[in-house]
Specification:
heterodimer; A: about 190 residues; alpha/beta; Beta Polymerase, domain 2; 5-stranded mixed sheet; 7 strands; globular; B: mainly alpha; 3-stranded antiparallel sheet; 19 helices; 10 strands; about 10% strand; elongated
């Protein structure tokens, strides 16, 4: 299935679950409602029309600083406008972050028999940063979700072992959040008990 | 007083206790730093807990603080045994974000160097695994072969390990003169080493006994854990990004994807040995099909403009004629007489960081360089998000990049292939002998820089 057909098939199959969809540079992306993620993922894996048997990647993006700090595109800091490069195609632009929610959890699925890819995005609010765990569908989700918890502080409901994976237990904060300063230092080990 | 004698006569159940064995974090067989806490029942592993993160350097956080080309040195340090594949994967992800296409010669150069890296990576993995099983000779042979390949890498990039050879929109420089000949010689030497190692290992009783049947994983489990690369192919699943989602020029090259049948350590060894042979075939085809090298003309006008003539044109006010042209300068600076290299990079000056010959050799190159490296300037992809996978030495190496239209990437996520294998390791180790932990872990080819980022 190519990307437009993929988006159409998913949207028709789950009309209530799909918020929006877009295709940027050929990557099919479907934005889902948080509560429907688990059901959609299970169908995508098991339905012969999709057969997305690989959870290729699972990560998150913190959109809280999106477009706020950097100067607008194609303007240099001296104020002299540089015309957009003609070789960069601008048809079919990216619609931007999906909504007011701070975080977006991003799933990359791949189908080994049908050789198609799909990106699922689930927007999550900071106050209630929790999505369903996919560990019951893919074993690989276990560590990936631990990493997202570690780096972004997004919890995964029904995860069997949601503890930090790259950082140590005493580490305070979640380093990939945009409000975590890049040069902040913390003691490498916590107090010895 | 003589009670113990009567107690001895009634044999009760033998008291057994599980033993906790800590392998790592600093253990010679734990390539890099990782800790496996195993619970042993006698010699059998009943539980294994894998702890990672000892080499976490914040790759993804750091990438958000530098411009697009600035990420390149960090990608070198992901899988530091095959940094050229990381460079290539990252460059192609940003190029996808930009929507630009690089010339075919650039693709070929990237493919040739990626395959050289892949061979070096597999040589390291097989050699180190063999060494841990006592075959030190094989390790030395394979490191010798890797040395030939690293000399090639050094010849092209100027560095051996942290090469930073990729550039968004191209590569740092063209292949040097005499590269094809050197490359063929190196491959000949590597083939000789592989034949020697094959003779020493493949039918070696000790090696086969240690490798065969240990570290088994079923294809269903491997897919569920997202395992890719040689580890997945050893189970019989022929997934190779180069074949299934071809990128660069892999669809124009002939090669086979070797698969195993049993998914054990021995099959992984065989798959890696055969993949090296296939990679050498790819390199030879790449050298054969490589489109011709740089031509000493401007891509727009077909001719380079001598500097004096350019000055005359400028004085006459004919700016349009020289706006995008390059000048040939007096060779007072080494490299300044070298021609522009349009065949290895996109023609778009707002994307490609020029080669050092251009930066130091002519004013256009210098300006192009500064427009890309100065604060507030640089490559500015449109807003968007892309995911681009390439076949790394350990499996699918994917880069997910989000751009907010600024000169720095908003988010860079790398899908490290060995992270997925490590997440399944506890499943593979349970039920095995304690001694089998070493060959199984060796066949994962864990690279700390990539795993912990």
């Amino acid at each position: 299935m190519n990307a437009p057909a993929m988006i159409q098939a998913v949207s028709e199959r789950f009309p209530a679950a799909v918020k929006t969809s877009h295709m940027y540079r050929g990557d099919a992306t479907v934005v889902l409602r948080r509560e429907s993620l688990l059901g959609v993922a299970r169908v995508l894996k098991e339905d012969p029309a999709f057969e997305m048997n690989f959870l290729m990647d699972l990560t998150a993006v913190d959109y809280s600083c999106f477009g706020k700090k950097s100067s607008p595109a194609f303007f240099s800091s001296s104020g002299v406008m540089v015309s957009p490069s003609p070789v960069i195609p601008d048809a079919d632009p990216w619609p931007g972050p999906t909504g007011p929610e701070r975080f977006v959890v991003v799933y990359h699925l791949y189908s080994l028999p049908l050789k198609h890819r799909l990106r699922l995005e689930v927007p999550v609010e900071e106050a209630d940063a929790e999505v369903d765990s996919l560990t019951s569908i893919w074993g690989g989700a276990n560590w990936l979700e631990r990493e997202v918890w570690d780096m972004f502080g997004i919890r995964f409901r029904a995860h069997p072992n949601l503890i930090r994976i790259l950082m140590y237990e005493e580490f305070a904060g979640h380093p990939l959040r945009k409000d975590y300063p890049v040069n902040k230092r913390q003691p490498l080990i916590g107090p010895v008990n | 007083m003589d009670q113990p004698q009567t107690q001895k006569a009634t044999p009760g159940p033998i008291e057994t206790r599980e033993m906790l064995l800590n392998v790592g974090p600093a253990h010679p067989a734990m390539h890099g730093i990782i800790r496996i806490v195993t619970k042993l029942d006698g010699e059998q592993v009943v539980d294994a807990d894998v702890e990672i993160g000892y080499l976490h350097r914040g790759f993804e956080k750091m990438s958000e603080t530098v411009d697009y080309n600035g990420v390149m040195p960090y990608t070198d340090r992901l899988n530091y045994v095959s940094p050229l594949i990381n460079n290539m994967g990252y460059c192609m992800a940003v190029e996808k974000l930009l929507g630009v296409a690089v010339p075919e010669r650039c693709h070929y150069i990237r493919v040739i160097l990626s395959e050289i890296s892949r061979i070096a990576d597999h040589l390291t993995c097989v050699g180190a695994s063999a060494m841990e099983l006592g075959a030190f000779t094989v390790f030395l042979y394979m490191i010798k072969a890797r040395e030939f390949l690293w000399e090639l890498v050094e010849m092209v990039t100027g560095a051996r390990l942290t090469v930073s050879y990729g550039r968004v929109g191209g590569v740092k420089g063209d292949l040097p003169e005499g590269f094809a000949e050197r490359c063929r010689n190196a491959l000949r030497e590597t083939r000789r080493v592989l034949a020697e190692s094959d003779a020493l290992l493949t039918r070696n009783r000790i090696f086969v006994d240690r490798m065969s049947g240990t570290g088994r994983i079923t294809p269903e489990n491997a897919i569920s854990y997202g395992i890719t690369g040689p580890f997945l192919r050893s189970t019989g699943v022929a997934y190779d990004v180069r074949k299934d989602c071809p990128y660069a020029v892999y669809d124009q090259l002939q090669f086979d994807v070797p698969v195993g049948t049993r998914g054990d350590n021995y099959d992984r060894y065989l798959v890696r040995m055969e993949e090296m042979e296939q990679s050498m075939g790819i390199i030879e085809q790449g050298l054969r099909d490589l489109p011709p090298g740089p031509v000493a003309v401007n891509p727009e006008t077909g001719q380079p403009i001598p500097a004096a003539e350019m000055v005359d044109q400028g004085k006459a006010g004919n700016i349009a004629a020289i706006a995008d042209a390059c000048a040939t300068t007096d060779p007072t600076l080494e490299g300044s007489a070298k021609p522009r290299q349009p065949n290895i990079a996109v023609g778009e000056k707002r994307v490609f960081l020029p080669s050092k010959e251009d930066t130091y050799g002519n004013i256009e190159g210098l300006m192009q360089h500064f427009k890309l490296v100065m604060y507030g300037h640089g490559i500015r992809p449109p807003k968007g998000e892309v995911y681009f996978p390439v076949e790394g030495a350990n499996g699918e190496l994917g880069f997910y990049i989000v751009s907010d239209g600024g000169s720095k990437p908003y988010r860079v996520r790398v899908r490290p292939p060995c992270f997925f294998i490590m997440s399944a390791l506890h499943k593979i180790l349970v039920g095995e002998m304690a001694a089998d932990v070493i060959p199984t872990f060796g066949s994962v080819n864990m690279i700390g820089g990539e795993l912990d980022r």
